[in-house]
Amino acid sequence: MDQEITRWINAPAGSHAALDMAMIALTRYGVPLLVLLVVVQWWGRRDRLRLRHTCIAAGLSFLAGLGLNQIVLLFVHRVRPYDAGVSHLIIEHSADWSFPSDHATASFAIAAAFLLHGFKGRGSAFLVAALAVCLSRVYVGTHYATDILGGAATGIFAAILVRQLYRAGTRMDRLVTGLL
């Protein structure tokens, strides 16, 4: 089923120039743009300290999720779908294993952090962007659908972990959120 879903999403790749360009742009620039959007939130005017705390939590979730992925990669060596003949690759080859998707982890960690800290509007917007980035990763042929699910799970887990461990109002939090 995973291969069939991956093939279905990847099927139009290489056939529609405008769609290919959009998906390649999402794949290349989606996560950096999400990070930039988190950084811009730092200067929000409403509920400033809670928003800044959430920005720090999103960054920590991002890093923790990618760290968890590195541990998973020590044990899971899944071949990329284009190497297995499942997908048609329309971007450059990746040097690492397929599972879990770092793009999914990073984007879902950010979205989950904002949602878990009560920023429903911003969190929902980040979630829509995360879903678009994840779809692009399968479309361009570099991931299986379950690689995306695994990455999303590690991103969400990291955000939950950070939510539990990084508390608002601590001395360190007041120091960091008071910068700039």
Automatic annotation (TrEMBL):
Which parts pass through the membrane?
Answer: 22-43, 55-77, 97-116, 123-142, 148-166
This protein's UniProt keywords = Membrane, Transmembrane, Transmembrane helix
Residue span, Phosphatidic acid phosphatase type 2/haloperoxidase domain: 53-163
One matching Pfam family is: PAP2
| Gene3D superfamilies, per the entry | Phosphatidic acid phosphatase type 2/haloperoxidase
Q: Is Transmembrane helix there in the keyword field?
A: yes
SMART domains given in the database record: acidPPc
Keyword Transmembrane helix attached: yes
Query: What InterPro entries does the record point to?
Result: PAP2/HPO, PAP2/HPO_sf
User: Can you name this protein?
Assistant: Phosphatase PAP2 family protein
